[in-house]
Specification:
Elements lengths: L9 E6 L2 E5 L6 E2 L4 H11 L1 H6 L15 H13 L8 H4 L3 H6 L23 H9 L14 H14 L7 E8 L2 E2 L8 E3 L4 E4 L2 E5 L2 E6 L11 H15 L4 E6 L6 H8 L4 E7 L3 H21 L3 E10 L9 E10 L2 E2 L2 E5 L17 H8 L4 H13 L10 H25 L10 H9 L3 E5 L4 E5 L6 H18 L1
Parallel strand pairs: 4-10, 10-11
Antiparallel strand pairs: 1-2, 3-16, 4-8, 5-7, 6-7, 8-9, 11-15, 12-13, 13-14, 13-15, 16-17
């Protein structure tokens, strides 16, 4: 069967007496009109400009079509827009709106050095692939190595800039995720907990802001590398927020004496960590469990909770006794005991208006359980930004991919925080921001004097789009 002509009309089922006809004569169109918001936030943060300085561009600049900042913007914006695969750029590189967002002087690509590339403004998948692999391949084509320490510091610096400058308290949430592998990647290791071969990246988040994304092999303890990471993060936060109180929060996988001892040795550093149960802890919680069972029998409630507080020290692994809060919960006749350990005082802090926030029940239910919000941030990394798509062979390039996904999330989070506060998208996920604000049909017309972008007249959230635009432009004027 012969292939249809590109100019041939496409006929669909009739709409009553009307024919339904489609063709590809609509002009230069894009489905990502909101990509300009990513560009605006990037300009305010200076993200891709700063990130570009972490790379050593060894190319002969006389023959370069794409600057380092443009390559990084293309890759990061595409991830934010839902194009996480390099193969997506085979067609995406022709998008004039993305080219405009990436600061290409000619969004139509007529200024390309090689004649055969003219009409295609952005970089190809192979060029972006060489960017990711340059730390592992020493060939004439791989001339864009990066300094991992500088990229790590860039994420931390940019993340800390997103925190309130006059914050009195910052909570750092710790978590690790099992990113499954489907090949023979470097550092591949079977992890019994996840039941498969995976990496075990460490994430540290402050509120909705990702400060740390460290790729690790899964043969290590879940708390491996936390103290060195905290040392860098706390120093960066203290440079911005001089007198801030910092609380480290995590599940029982981070309940390690090394972490707790480090926090106890620092000024204004506290921790609240999950603690795995054992016979000694259960014995201390036994009276509260008995009370909870009696209440459950008397009132017939599906769930009854009692709390107890006591000092506890392990036989060998802890260097000192610490405050432990136990939750004695009875669910449908079954016991569900849980424990946390902390150096937060039940009397709270003198300067706080609420001195009762760290009493037993509130410490567990209101403070510790709030760490679930951090898990929602990590779900966005995987579900919305495909941060677990670590399919290159090398650890270094997979770490770079993890960082690029974190930078893409940062741009989307800033669009939400700065442009959408007080609106229906104030607490939206990165995927919802993309779908409802960035995915806007647009016609792009390029002339000598301007790039004219005509957004869809049928777009249902025009008022929200205009509000977000006004807020981000005011931010740009303030930065200027």
């Amino acid at each position: 069967m012969a292939a249809p002509s590109p100019d041939e009309s496409l006929l669909f089922s009739d709409l009553g007496p009307r024919k339904v006809v489609a063709d590809f004569s609509g002009g230069t169109l894009s489905s990502d009109g909101g990509a300009l918001f990513l560009r605006q936030i990037d300009a305010s943060l200076g993200l891709t400009r700063t990130l570009a300085s972490c790379f050593n561009d060894q190319r002969d600049q006389r023959f370069v079509d794409h600057t380092m900042a443009q390559l990084l913007a293309q890759r990061i914006y595409a991830v934010g827009l839902g194009y996480e695969d390099l193969n997506d750029h085979t067609e995406l590189r022709r998008d004039p709106l993305l080219a405009t967002a990436c600061d290409k002087p000619d969004p139509l690509g007529q200024d390309r050095f090689n004649r055969q590339d003219r009409g295609i403004a952005l970089a190809s998948p192979s060029t972006l692939n060489r960017l990711e692999l340059s730390n592992n391949k020493a060939t004439p084509a791989h001339k864009l190595p990066h300094d991992p320490a500088k990229v790590e510091a860039c994420l931390l610096t940019m993340g800390v800039r997103c925190l309130p400058k006059h914050a009195k308290e910052i909570v750092l949430d710790l978590d690790s995720m099992g990113h499954l592998l489907h090949g023979l990647q470097e550092g591949r290791h079977y992890n019994d907990y996840y039941g498969d071969y995976c990496y075990l990246p460490l994430y540290i988040v402050a509120g909705d802001v990702v400060l740390w994304a460290q790729l690790r092999t899964s043969d290590k303890d879940g708390a491996d590398g936390v103290v060195p990471a905290l040392e860098k993060i706390v120093a960066a936060i203290r440079r911005r927020c001089k007198e801030v109180r910092i609380i480290v929060r995590g599940d029982s996988g981070f309940c390690r004496d090394e972490i707790m001892t480090w926090c106890e040795g620092q000024p204004e550093i506290y921790y609240c960590l999950g603690l795995g149960k054992n016979p000694v802890l259960l014995k201390n919680l036994a009276p509260a469990l008995v009370t909870a069972r009696m209440r459950a029998c008397l009132c017939g409630a599906p769930s009854v909770r009692e709390f107890a507080e006591f000092e506890y020290r392990t036989q060998t692994s802890w260097s000192r006794a610490r405050r432990v809060v136990g939750k004695a919960e009875v669910l449908a006749g079954d016991d569900n005991p849980r424990f946390i350990v902390t150096n937060l005082s039940a009397q709270g802090f003198k300067a706080d208006a609420d001195r009762q926030r760290f009493t037993t029940a509130r410490l567990y239910e209101e403070f510790y359980c709030a760490r679930g919000e951090m898990e929602n941030v990590l779900k966005q990394q995987v579900l919305d930004l495909e941060a677990d798509k670590l399919s290159t062979h090398y650890m270094a390039s997979n770490q770079l991919r993890l960082w690029l996904a974190a930078f893409a999330y940062m741009l989307l989070e800033r669009v939400r925080a700065l442009g959408c506060h007080g609106t229906e998208l104030a607490r939206a996920t990165a995927g919802s921001i993309r779908l409802k604000l960035l995915k806007v049909a647009a016609r792009v017309t390029v002339s000598v004097r301007r790039v004219y972008i005509q957004l869809s007249s049928a777009y249902p959230r025009q008022d929200l789009f205009r509000l977000c635009h006004a807020r981000l432009m005011r931010l740009a004027l303030a930065d200027g």
